[in-house]
Amino acid sequence: MHQFSSQSSRNRRGRKIKPENPRVEDGELDFLHPALGPARIVWIPRDALGLGEAEERENRAARIDVSTRFAIINEAGHVDVEGPPPGEEHVAK
């Protein structure tokens, strides 16, 4: 199993790859498991009771990237999405 360290690793052909940017020109790592890539931001909807904001504070205290932006739970208990997921604002433009 291939694991990335803080130092440069080598691919199967011996070329150095940097852990912060594991993609190489010829696509050798196209099937790299998503868990080995950067963590996505946890997206929690806001609600009338303030539970989403409380959960956001707890996650931030645990150093977890989290956002309640653009998502809200409506009166019927459904999540209304008002914009793009956190960290993907550039994709929506």
What does this 3D model show about the protein?
It is a single chain. The protein has about 90 residues and is of the alpha+beta class. The protein has two domains: about 1-35, no CATH class; about 40-90, no CATH class. The protein is about 15% helix and about 15% strand. It has two helices and six strands. The protein has helices spanning about 50-60, 90, and strands spanning about 10, 15, 40-45, 65, 70-75, 80. Strands 1-2 form a two-stranded antiparallel sheet. The longest helix is centred in the middle third of the chain and has 11 residues, at about 50-60. Residues about 1-10 have low confidence and may be disordered.
General form: extended
Q: What composes the largest sheet?
A: 2 strands, antiparallel
Q: Gap between N and C termini, in Å?
A: 38 Å
**Domain module count:** 2
Helical residues, percent: 10-25%
Name the helix and strand elements from N-terminus to C-terminus, one letter apiece: EEEHEEEH
Determine the structural class based on helices, strands and strand pairing.
Answer: alpha+beta
Main β-sheet, spatial strand arrangement:
1-2
Strand content: 15-25%
Uncertain segments of ≥5 residues (pLDDT<50)?
1-8
